[in-house]
Predict the structure.
Amino acid sequence: MKNLPDEKIDPVQSNANLVLSGSEARLRKEHDTVGMEHGVPPEEHEESLFSSFNRSPYAFHDLFMLRQAVAPHASVIVQMKTLDELLERDRRREKDGFPRKIQVGRLVKAKRGAKGQVVVVVPSTEEEKFYHDAVIRPPDEGRNAGGTGDEEEGEVLGEQQARDDEGQPGGGPGQGGEESHDMESSAYELGKTLTEQFQLPNLKEKGKRRSLTRYTHDLTDRNRGSGQILDKKATLRRILGTNRALGNMPDDQPVDPTRFLIAPSDKVYRTLSMEKDWEPQAVVFFVRDYSGSMAGKVTDLVVTQHVLIYSWLIYQYAGQVESRFILHDTQAKEVPDFNTYYNSRVAGGTQVSSAYQLVNEIVAEAGLARDYNIYVFHGTDGDDWDTHGEFALPELEKMLGYVSRMGITIAEHSDMTGGTDVAHYLEKSGLLKSKPHLIRMDAMEESADEGRVIEGIRKLIS
Amino acid sequence: MELINQHTKTIMEGCKERARDAGLSFTDESLEYIVTNRDLLELGPKVMIPTLYDYWVHDVEVLHAKGTYELYPHNPYETVINTRPPISFYNDNNPDWLNVMIFYHVLGHIDVFQNNLYFRNTWDYDFTGQALSDKRVIARLRSEKGRWVDYVIEFSRAIDNLVDFHGELAELFVSQEAGCSARLNYYFDVFLQSVKKVSISEYVREINRYNESMRNFGPLAEKTFFADAERRYPELESHFLREKQTQPSRRDLLRYLLEKSEFLNRDENQWMKTILEIIRKTSLFFQPQIRTKIVNEGWASYWHEKLFLQDDRIKGHEVDFARIHAGVTSLPRVGTNPYALGMRLFTYIEQQADKGRLSFDFQRVKDSNTRKRFDTKNVGGQEAIFGVRENLGDALFIKNYLDQDFLDLHKLFVVGKRLDRRRMVWQYYVKSRKAEDYRKMLMDTLYHPPVITVDPDKGDGDLYLVHTFEGKQLVQEYIASTMMGIEYLWGRPVHLETSVAQVDVVPETGNEGVPDGAVVWQRVLFTMEGKTLTQKVL
């Protein structure tokens, strides 16, 4: 399909970005916001004077107005079943030659205070019809609303921080909450879904660490003559050996198995025995650029992808994953939970090396390299003030000394032609080619859809 | 779901009596159910129709793009549904006085459902019953055809906003004796002009001949006239019959597909037509509701206020009532509340009519002092608002009655939003206090599906759709999927002629304000062939 040269324009962003073209605007934004607080946006959509500005008359219902009822919420268990069904249906759609319709990752929302263990998965879809597009209109005619009061024409009623609207990754559709029936599910479930439904590959183990505390019982020991379950393959092998020695298997004639002798001691059994459990363990570092240039769509992409990777790893390691979240602009800092990681606002400049350095420090301090599989996933828009990677590359090489996989996601701004800083210096360093099993890079456009995001994951981890 | 208890039902019946005395009219029976949150969860996606057909999308959150709610003007949690008898939903812990208020509100809605002419197409049957049988049909088909049923539902729903509601309604209102017969219309409007291409003098002669036979033969006039006409044009009857069969409404895409699609009319695909018909009927059922939101809520609010305050049973709860009522019907500082606006507009119309101001005499008065004092002591207010409730939908309600006086009376204005880039704040400001602008703002928020017609002369077997340009383009991302569905139902390639915006962004000229940019409209042709969309500029 041929695409039109128009972007789906978010009015907020378009207004903010139109002033200067592309990278210059972003750079300026970064400079302007250096030193600003990142802060997590308020959890609930505050009931402000202007919150009903965009509210359509059709959004008023008797239920809420007259009875002041609260929108009903679906429980986890009721709906978990349907997710599987829906995804199954979606897979069949593809086989029948129609595009998929269910989106899972787009509406992932991190929940506060849950130590990063809970994400909210909302399977969602769109009912496509011919609709009038309300977004495109002459620029001097913005969206209007009704109002009432004593002010004169032209008088300002109030103001609202414009930045609030930008770079709020978690605040995608469904934020109003009024009609959303969220489906809660653990990250584990989502990971399972991803692995099974989207056919993400299973992990190759780098190494396992022996657990001293857990034991399992398994039919692993073999015993001849007696036991719980006959190991047929091993038994047949022994019988063949015995009969060959007895000369019952001549080389030049057809074998007649009825003449075989079977000694009691040829029967091999498996017996139950206690085994020490082997547990793979992993530490995942999620690193995200939250500099000023990351506003809007790119952040959305990066965090969506990280939620998905996170869930997938949790499933792969059966919950034995420790995750660390690192945000960076020109300086890097570790944040305690996924919610903060997911929701922190963008501001400031970019220095990729600061984040790599912090990861290296944490690994070195805690001695993680010895016992753990270490994964580092880094999401950025590819801008770096350290244009040639003079600081970033040495840190990166150090990192490659211990990681199982380093995955760098670059969500390119749509006006980025000819690649980004980070992509450039990575290519130049030759690391991508010389150590493909350790480091992967995936660059996608900011307009990428969910399918592309999952494709990206496959690229990063396969 | 269970019915409300006898005690509450008695209250409801009392409300009905009082509402009737006040002039509202509705059927005797009504059903009131108690619903739990769980019920609501199931009912919401089914637009509160308990018997609506099952469809997997009902189990999924449908994405509403941020700030573009107007794309989806549907109301998931309606309290009353327009069925026979009307059904309304309640929670079980309401105090009696609140129930009284809600009952009056509900009766207001029922009154609109059963008297507003936009609902004319829903009067002759019970939708829940209809929906139940549809649901069973779909369930049976699903057991036979499996998931293909859902594909057909999906593709038909994708165009269920392209039903010709007004055309459908018009057919109901053309009374038999008022117009001419279809044959006569065809003969003069189509046959003589397009098929025979007769000269004007010939045409006039035919009209005279018709008038003459009207004079001479009375009730047998038409028969005699056509007996003559057929002698001259023996092919007339067959032409007429063919035309009657092959003239589906071109604005009603679903019906057009039903009647003309070769793919759907194949023997093995006949079952799909059942589904298309169900989707179409369902869509038509909801059309009047979407188009009377402000009238409906305004009317119900007007009456629940009026009747509650007159009700002797709830003495002592005036303050409680006032609190809830104000919450529902106060004019928001910013935003449009259909309850508040509609109620005030009805009150305003009543007052204006009582003073004889809904008249040409009043319109001619330009002097503001005279206008203020203008009062003919007409007392036609009630009649006027009942007339509005019977005849108007939202668009005309606003267009006819929302004037400058109303705007000034309630201090209404249009709020604009602009970016102050230096301080990075959004400013909300009073953009206009002109009635004209306010009406335009409201009209822009009303439901208005695109007008897309079939052009049977183009396409050469392919389906050729023409989107009538009204200053807005179609949502671009949705075009591909929607057209893919139509292609499936048509069985051949589909073309769509529409307009697309090219936004030229010019660097900002001033220091503040919105950047200048020009929208250039371009007529383009989308073609969906083999599930691939191509586009070319016309």
Remarks:
- The radius of gyration of chain B is 27 Å.
